[in-house]
Amino acid sequence: xxxxxxxxxxxxxxxxxxxxxGLATGALAAAFVRPEASPLNAVGGAVxxxxxxxxxxxxxxxxxxxxxxxLTLGITLVLAVLAAGTGVLAVRHPRTGCALAAAVGxxxxxxxxxxxxxxxxxxxPSLAAAAAAALALYLLVTVLRRPxxxxxxxxxxxxxxxxxxxxxxxxxxxxxxxxxYAGRRxxxxxxxxxxxxxxxxxxxxxxxxxxxxxxxxDLRVPGVGPFLTPAPDFxxxxxxxxxxxxxxxxxxxxxxxxxxxxxxxxxxxxxxxxPLAEHDITLCCVSNEVGxxxxxxxxxxxxxxxxxxREAGVRPPSRGGPADxxxxxxxxxxxxxxxxxxxxxxxxxxxxxxxxxxxxxxAHGFPVRMVVPGxxxxxxxxxxxTELRLTTFAxxxxxxxxxxxxxQAPVKTQSRIDTPRPFAKLAAGRVAVAGVAWAQHxxxxxxxxxxxxxxxxxxxxxxxxxxxxxxxxxxxxxAAPGGHTxxxxxxxxxxxVQTQERRGTLPxxxxxxxxxxxxxxx
Length: 522
Description:
The chain is an alpha+beta fold. It is built from eleven helices and 19 strands. The longest helix is centred in the middle third of the chain and has 29 residues, at 162-190.
């Protein structure tokens, strides 16, 4: 490692190295607590909890599913700048600099304790990080302030022993890298049980299997994705900086609350022993802008939620039940509120254990998640489910409702042009304009397309696979040379036409017609 040539440069390098030591120590300690308690994850989670809804929407819109990576990199950059400044301060004022380094770790502990699912142990990794960072900075600054042998201080600067400092700096970085690697390996070992439990899980055949997807449901138009979305391509929008890895062998679900005469506590084996239903259902995120990518269609396997609620003695409000809200809680503390009336009105609301023929992927809620057709995910699709509590909307606001989103959010009718892509350059002649449309629990009856504000033309629809899935569509367009704007709109199964009014995603989902602009050459 190069020898820092100036005390301030050396101090900045020492501060960054000390921060690295703290983060690595915190990651190692988190391996004995849980990954979410590591300093970076704890601070990141606290930032997510306190970020205004409009800023979150901007992040999702701008960075897509990379928003968590961008947040982590941003926090790391801020910490590096703060660490460098702390190191420079410590050169002149060692006690103050070391105290500041420790204080940052203590703030991390406070952030960890502020998380909704936190216990007192969650503070330990950040406190260990605080101690490690302060100690590393103290040792580095002590060597930095010590004159090299035979030299004296003059001119207000230290004739520092750069070789000794460089050796200690290198040793600090190396030891920190080892600690960080050890933490990663131990964390992987700690989640090995969850990985094994998923690998060993054999899902029983459904008592109510889904019919085969109609042959004409997938139009196989180039540029339009498959009718059933593969799990690796299925969108993921949530607040978890670390995907929870739950051991199915120790997982348990509790069901209790207002109007529950027979509280339930169920293991995964208990759920799998019940009759399982299989259904094709399209899910979409309320953060999906008009024409956005956060929608996917899958074949889900699970227990009917309404049957479970009736077994617990729950009645919907229309039949005199005292609870109108079902609050689902995730293992990471997320809460999602769903109308009791909706999940008990006969639709295929599931506690899903399978997706596209296999167990749920970890990223999509293994071992159990909720799936409720016709509702946006933030009011229905709780992943990594661990608790169901009956209450009222007046008594409790779930996570997103406390952040300016609506309490109830039925899916709005939407349609999207998947091909041609925006700003595509096309050859004149016949062009397949195609995409998907969805209005879960109402179905899609018609899709229309137009060019340049002209008359609407009815598109050819793929075969319907029930009312809870999207439908593919295609329209043959005779493209003439020049610039053109294509628009699409859908009509749901109740005869209601998708509104033209353009609105953003807050508070209950975007509206408007999707359009793309293309250029056609002769």
